Amino acid sequence: MRVPLSWLREYVDLPADAAPEDVLAALVSVGFEEEDVHRFELAGPIVVGEVLEFVEEPQSNGKTIRWCQVDVGAEQGGVRGIVCGARNFFVGDKVVVTLPGAVLPGPFPIAARKTYGHVSDGMIASARELGLGDEHSGILRLVELGIDAPVGTDAIALLGLDDVAVDINVTPDRGYALSVRGVAREYAHATGAAFRDPGATAAAEVALSDDSAFAVAVDDTAPIRGRAGATEFVARIVRDVDPTKPTPAWMVARLTLAGIRSLGILIDITNYVMVELGQPIHGYDLDKLQGGITVRRATVGEKLETLDGKVRDLDPEDLLITDASGPIGLAGVMGGGTTEMTDATRNVLIEAATFDTVSIARTARRHKLPSEASRRFERGVDPAIPFVAAARVAELMAAYAGGTDTRAGGALNSTFETRGVELPKPFVAALIGVEYTESEIVAALEMIGCTVDEHDASWTVSPPSWRPDLTDRWTLAEEVARIEGYDRIPSVLPLPPSGRGLTPAQQGRRRVSDALAAAGYVETPSFPFTTAEHNDLHGSPSGEHLPSVKLANPLDGQAPFLRRSLVPGLLQVAHRNLSRGFTDLALFETGAVFLPEPGVRYGTSFVPPLAVRPDAATLAELDASIPPQRRHVAVLLTGHLIAKQPGQAAVAASLADALDAVRTIASAAGVSIDVAQGERKALHPGRTGVLSVGDTEVGYVGELLPAVAEASDLPGRVVIAEVDLDLLLQLAGERVVAASLSGFPAATQDVSVVVGDDVPAAYVRQALVEGAGELLESLRLVDDYRGTGLADGTKSLTFALRFRAADRTLTAAEATDAKLAGVAAASARFGAVLRE
């Protein structure tokens, strides 16, 4: 809302030296947001001049210029020669002259310059050049504005161009502030300055003396929320107007600063009163109306040509202004073209009404037709102001358009009653956290216009007509806090109750993410949407078709399914990075995958009402409509893990690096993961591993098939791993404090066993661990040999073992016995024999 300060001074005592920043600071203190300060971007000398004579001189380019002699006053150098291309002024006219040194909006500096064979010592200005409008109507003649000022008078002050407007953001619940009246009231609240309310005009002064001169009716057969579309409606007749009269310069300046373009005296007056009082006004050419006015809903098939020249198909919910010919306006949004005021208008019917907020909001959005009027109506206008506003428009049309206020017309006036709100006395202090006194609460509420009736333990508060947002004790408490000052509210950080924090699962997920990031991986969250083909390829162990959840309103019609795996998202991220020249990638993502159960239908069309807390049965129904969601973690590597550098050849990312990432995940989760050879449809058959914790499978690791990588536009080797993170953390259980390290030395031994080449090394390792017992501290595979010296169909696996006791130094014999116990266990299970 942009408010010129000269206008604001008419309704509140503003200090003479008040700067725009001071006014904004005061308004910010009562809850508004500062937006900007608007000025006419021009500087003097700009003065009133009189055209003494001119000579018309045709030019070779076909243009005719006038070489003018203009008197600008003795203080400005007397008579000056000025070249002007306009031809709408005459000898003896007083005009606005911008002298050398002046700056016009643009910025456009003025200087004496030679043109068309003369030195033009200034410029005769148009309204457009002064920033008073966009009309290209030629030179601004002061006689057309009804101004007769002495030569040499400062034109900036004369035309109101020295005014300045403050701009504030008005929240939707405070529509009363979309007016000079409302902003002036808020400034008075902030500073204590005296406020003069034009809405307090006595009813007798603004009432119609004859309310039967024009028929007005409301026939709302389909009210929304049980409320009629119009509750107040006044139609006031002004006769014998002259629409060609100029709009006063001060009015044009104020409207321009308020962000409204001047469109002629009649429309300017209706806009002026709308900004002044917050009541949208519409003017009709009375002679174009057929019969009286009826406010009703549209019927199926009706059309209306609005003032913007568009023919609109009407909806049965649209609220219309109609006469005997049919629709003549969209109520509260925009008038119709058939009854608009023009330069031929002689008699005007002024309309001021109160329309239902919901009806206006829906109509404006349905027709994509926001307007200054709908902006105010949908936020709620003061139902006590329509008669005042209509009288104000009539007064201005009589004063500046030569009309006669007949004080006749038609009216629909309903009694406006506000519902009292019960406000317990301790409530405000308890809610806001400030010990307000009872007198402070009452004073704050009365300051904003409420009527307060006191009882023993409470007050009954009746909000004013212009505050429809004050509906309960909470909104009243907010007003007290606003008026008394937000700076009184202490800044106190709440203390979290003990025992509340991240859950063990949340802590585990964070540990895993932090560990991968510390290991050099970059987290790349992606959308959880994919195709059915990718779900089948990456979301099932063998690539068979499993059920997926299809969205009813997908963001991308080509990817309408919820993902069963994180890998498709990582492949998309890798492709995007490769296309931008980033070839060495180490990516990871943690997120939900969606694993619907076969035969179960998910989704629901039932949406519980917003104002009602769902009961247990409703929540259970909503939960059942969602497929099971598991949190996974996945990694992807491609390109070089180590870049080429002096003394170091480039090292490509390999399956071993993906296995290291798996070990990083396992370490952060607090478990030990075993790897066994396996198969998946999207992975290389000889380079795929199944990840297990004990006997429970938790994920997989492997290298993408070249064809799969190529289909994703990923050249070269791509290795991936994906783990069910929820399951991993569940298997880890609660983390315990790590045991103290033993101070005794370790005993190391190696062992090589021969087994069938179809026996996974992980199975042999597990047997060795279980057979060796508690003395075994670590065991790792160091060699897998197949070839000369071994029987066909066998392989030799070499393991490095480390033994340690917590209470003593182990002997070589003790370590050997433990190793052989492990070999015995492997022999019993897989026929393993020591390699000679």
Number of helices, counting only DSSP H or I runs of 4 residues or more: 22
CATH architecture of the largest domain: 2-Layer Sandwich
* Number of separate strands: 41
CATH class of the largest domain: Alpha Beta
- Output the CATH topology of the largest domain: BirA Bifunctional Protein, domain 2
| Number of structural domains | 6
Look at the helices and sheets and give the structural class. Answer: alpha+beta
Largest sheet: 7 strands, mixed
Placed side by side, the strands forming the largest sheet appear as 27-30-31-37-36-35-34
Low-confidence stretches: none
According to CATH, the homologous superfamily of the largest domain is Bira Bifunctional Protein, Domain 2
Distance N terminus to C terminus? 93 Å
Tell me, rounded to a whole number, the average pLDDT: 90
Secondary structure layout plus pairing:
Blueprint lengths: L1 E3 H4 L11 H10 L3 E7 L6 E13 L5 E8 L7 E6 L9 E5 L4 E2 L3 E2 L3 E3 L2 E3 L2 E2 L30 H4 L5 E6 L10 H12 L11 H4 L9 E4 L10 E10 L9 H9 L7 H13 L3 E5 L7 E5 L5 E3 L5 E3 L5 E5 L2 E5 L3 E2 L12 E8 L1 H10 L5 H6 L8 H15 L3 E10 L7 E4 L2 H6 L5 H10 L3 E4 L3 E5 L10 H12 L19 H15 L3 E2 L5 E2 L1 H7 L22 E2 L4 H13 L5 E10 L21 H9 L4 E10 L1 E3 L8 E2 L2 H15 L4 E4 L5 E11 L2 E9 L1 H6 L6 E7 H8 L14 E10 L4 H12 L3 E10 L8 E10 L8 H19 L2 E2 L2
Parallel strand pairs: 13-16, 27-30
Antiparallel strand pairs: 1-12, 2-12, 3-4, 3-6, 4-5, 6-11, 7-8, 9-10, 14-22, 14-23, 15-22, 16-19, 17-18, 19-20, 20-21, 24-26, 25-26, 28-29, 30-31, 31-37, 32-33, 34-35, 35-36, 36-37, 38-40, 38-41, 39-40
